[in-house]
Amino acid sequence: MKNFDNIFREYDIRGIFEKELNEKSVKAIGLSLGEVFKEKGVKKVSIGYDARLSGEEIFKYLISGLNFHNLEIYDIGMLPTPVGYFSVFTKLFDANIMITGSHNPKNYNGFKITIGKDSFFGEDLQNLKIKVKENLSSNLIIKDDFRAKNFDVLSKYLNYLAENFSHLKNLNLKIACDCANATAGIVLEPLKKALNLDMKILFSNPDGNFPNHHPDPSVNENLQDLKKELKDGFDIGFGFDGDSDRIAVLTKENNIKGDELAYLFALNLKEPKIVGEVKFSQNIYEIINKFGSTFIAKTGHSHIKKFLKNSDCDLGAEVSGHIFFNDRYFGFDDAIYAMLRVLEIIHYGTNLDLELSKLPKVYTTDEIKIDVDENDKFKIIDIFKEHINELNLPPIKEIIDIDGIRVHFDNGAWALLRASNTTPCLVARFEANDEYLKDEIRDKFMKLVNDIKFSL
User: Fold this and answer.
1) Which of 311, 323, 310 has the alpha carbon at shortest distance from 264?
2) Model's pTM, two decimal places?
3) With a cut of 50, which residues of the chain have pLDDT below it?
4) How high is the mean pLDDT of the chain?
């Protein structure tokens, strides 16, 4: 099966339905994962899925493999991924699997796996891949076995949010939310009623064809409907990705990135301890360090969740909009919870645009995505590192290589190049206090990347 190895990524399993993810392979994944669950003492497993058209079919294949091991399987239905996390972090279940393609094209799907409070990722996924390939090569026939009990975890999640944010009832704020026909509306519609929010919910009906726009709020073209609502009188807008673990926050003046959100939340925490990642603005790190402390982690929801679990940090964030609250929450990324925390700091008096305007002026690129062959992306990074000193760059102060290469220069500028762990691309970002300098560093980085790319 071409590219089958590549579906076992750093944080999750993700592939194209009916190609890498078909009846045979998904049943083998379920069978192999069931072996892991039994080894780890897992008995009760909750399984949900996002709005993709393949979700229910993949669910049946997956539980056929899992049921081979006589586990207790619970169908929690179509839900945001964070509701699945909630089901294990509140100890209702021993493990959770969310069937989701996140923000990938609509023909993709995949699995995000949690055992207890631990993400199943990295080396664990690579070891699982070996088991899956062994089971596939054995030609074992896995019969259809769709046994699963229905379980309503959504009501418990909604009650938790309504109780913990009861002070936001009747909030005097005009809110627009764009669900992108994915899963956020499943929660937002009843939450709006529970808190009596003045909220307009766009595209709340789940539809795996994503007829209005793709469910990726990190792409500007997917935010046009929200921007129109802000022009028409709404105060704030929120956009959600395919499985509602990633958020975009828009005001009339700003599209607030994840690192800027971390700064705004930090302003409202006592002696905040904030975990960022390699794409974070250095400007944000330095400002937070004046009244709190910051830590840098690898990009990726699994890496940041692990960091938070093993620390007393209050909050983790990624530029892309994954926000993780340890403070008053469970430490996993939840876009709907993050939305409520944004509304809360506004309620308590934070003017988002005003606070952002106080930050020192720097020139920062958005994430620049460079399409490459899946098999070449890490090779390109390795070759790039070997040639970094040939670029005639400003004097280098520090190189951080925990995730790709992040270069800090003596003049305060920085540059990043890393391989995406979810898509076949490289990600770059550049920042300087001078726009010409930012562009100069960007151009030199990009030229070397393209030279390497076309030489392979």
Assistant:
1) 323
2) 0.95
3) none
4) 96
Is the Cβ–Cβ distance between 442 and 428 less than 8 Å? yes
* Separation CA 363–CA 435 (nearest Å): 6
Dihedral, CA of residue 233, residue 202, residue 354 and residue 409, to nearest 10: -140
pLDDT at 2: 59
According to the model, what pLDDT value does residue 1 have? 59
List the catalytic residue out of 25, 64, 87, 102: 102
So what's the pLDDT on residue 61?
98
Q: Which residues contact 5 (CB under 8 A, 6 or more apart)?
A: 129
Catalytic residue flag (residue 102)? yes
- H-helix or E-strand containing 308? helix 301-309
- Asked if 454 and 335 touch (Cβ cutoff 8 Å), the reply is no
| Domains identified in the chain and CATH numbers | 4-152 (3.40.120.10), 155-357 (3.40.120.10), 363-455 (3.30.310.50)
What DSSP line would sit under 360-416, residue for residue?
PP-EE--PEEEE--TTTHHHHHHHHHHHGGGS-PSPEEEEE-SSSEEEEETTS-EEE
